[in-house]
Amino acid sequence: MIEALRGLGYSTATALADIVDNSIAANASNVAIQFLWDGSKSRVSVQDDGCGMNAAIIDKAMRLGDRNPLEERAAGDLGRFGLGLKTASFSQCRRLTVASTGEDGFHCLRWDLDVLATSEGDGWYLLEGPAPGSEAFLESARVSRLGTLVLWEELDRIVTADFAEQDFLDLIDRVESHLSMVFHRYLEGTRPVLRLTINGKRLQPWDPFLVGHPAKPWHSPTSYPPRASGVEAECHVLPHRDRLTAKEYESAQGPDGWTAQQGFYVYRNRRLLVAGSWLGLGQGRSWTKDEAHRLARIRLDIPNSADADWKIDIRKSTARPPVALRPWLIQLADATRSRARRAFAHRGRNPRTLDNKPVGQAWRSEHFAGGMRYRVDLDHPAIRCILDDAGTLLPQIKAMLRVLEETIPVQRIWLDTAESREIPRTGFDGASQEEVADVLRVLYRTMVEHKGMSEELARERLLHTEPFCNYPQLIAGLA
């Protein structure tokens, strides 16, 4: 059964997160993870300064399924199945040793899968003390006043064939990124902060929501569902890359990149369970992760009493919302996705004017039974000026516009956006101020000299027209 449980699908990072959960539950302030490279004898340890375990508690903690998952848990409990310590450890190693100093002194118990495999009968042989030769690795736990040390040896699921020291170092980087994300709310803030280190380096929290960043286009107040106690949500649209420094952009994309990190972030007791997922929700069909919604992230907190309703798995890595909450979640996500799409399309600068009046756009979308198409807005000032003065050329100009409408390279734009993970630059993005001013002067003269508009009205029309609405200073200087 233990060999079967090794295949639950833990990565090294998710397995270590389960071990850290136990340290947090033991009220630890400091958790030190050590990766020690020694080829096939490499080992990983996790030591905390929590309350430790007495003889009865450590014996119970080392047994599989020591607690009924249906039992009511304390509000701050991060566990559920009584399997995390064992299944997470067995997924990475064949020898698990736990040493703890509690109120009644020092205790040490060990599981060794090789001993189980070679033992006669069907006994469950939970061993006492460290393996011969491993005593020194547990000395820091023996001399501690309180606390627990978890030691992984025989790392057969980590140190595989051709696994080298550089692979070990790369693994440490991945674990650091994952733990900085999963426990970021414990690593930050003014409340008692968890100090989590890997090989002596203190982990810094990774905030998925860029809380407090001045360039964020939008975030919602906290929302609560009508009938679900303890559940709350906050919706966030992150800044476009043009509004971030190179360092901020690199950091904010998260361990798996901007597109992969979009969606819901599900927390239980401030511990991150799901990092970026649309949870199978959608309008008609499930939403998929795409470039247009890469800036959308939603924080969702649930209580540990709702584990069964949300179908939290042993690895604490998946969640499925209850049917009753789906309409509420879809409504929140739909609004966030819409705002994120606009922020992405306009490169973080939503077309707007100082008086918040509507902005005239050169293109408009039309929805019809067969789908959607795009049309040139003939009332856009730059287009209307030409049409009004076209005379006998009017049919040819309209024909030209229709050809442009029917040949918009939508698929090419879509492919280029997907491949470059960025939308094409429009709205004079990257153009000099003089280039924009040249176009503005032509339109302004036409409106004043040929259309008979007052200078004030002409400037107002340009201020409410895309893309000139982004250049109010240039418009103010027209004369």
First-residue to last-residue Cα separation: 84 Å
Using the CA coordinates, give the radius of gyration.
30 Å
Strand order of the largest sheet: 5-4-3-6-2-1-7-8
Q: Name the assembly state.
A: single chain
- Average per-residue pLDDT, rounded, comes to 88
Shape: elongated
Task: Give a verbal description of the structure.
With 479 residues, this protein is of the alpha+beta class. The chain folds into three domains: 201 residues, Heat Shock Protein 90 (2-Layer Sandwich), CATH 3.30.565.10; 128 residues, no CATH class; 114 residues, no CATH class. It is built from 17 helices and 15 strands. The chain has an eight-stranded mixed beta sheet with strand order 5-4-3-6-2-1-7-8. A five-stranded mixed beta sheet has the order 9-10-13-11-12. It starts with a helix and ends with a helix.
Topology:
Blueprint: H1 2-5, H2 12-25, E1 30-36, E2 43-48, H3 55-61, H4 84-90, E3 95-102, E4 105-112, H5 113-118, E5 127-128, H6 139-142, E6 147-153, H7 165-182, H8 184-187, E7 195-198, E8 201-202, E9 218-219, E10 232-237, H9 246-252, E11 263-268, E12 271-277, E13 296-302, H10 307-310, H11 326-345, E14 363-368, E15 371-376, H12 381-388, H13 394-406, H14 410-420, H15 433-450, H16 455-463, H17 472-476
Parallel strand pairs: 1-7, 11-13
Antiparallel strand pairs: 1-2, 2-6, 3-4, 3-6, 4-5, 7-8, 9-10, 10-13, 11-12, 14-15
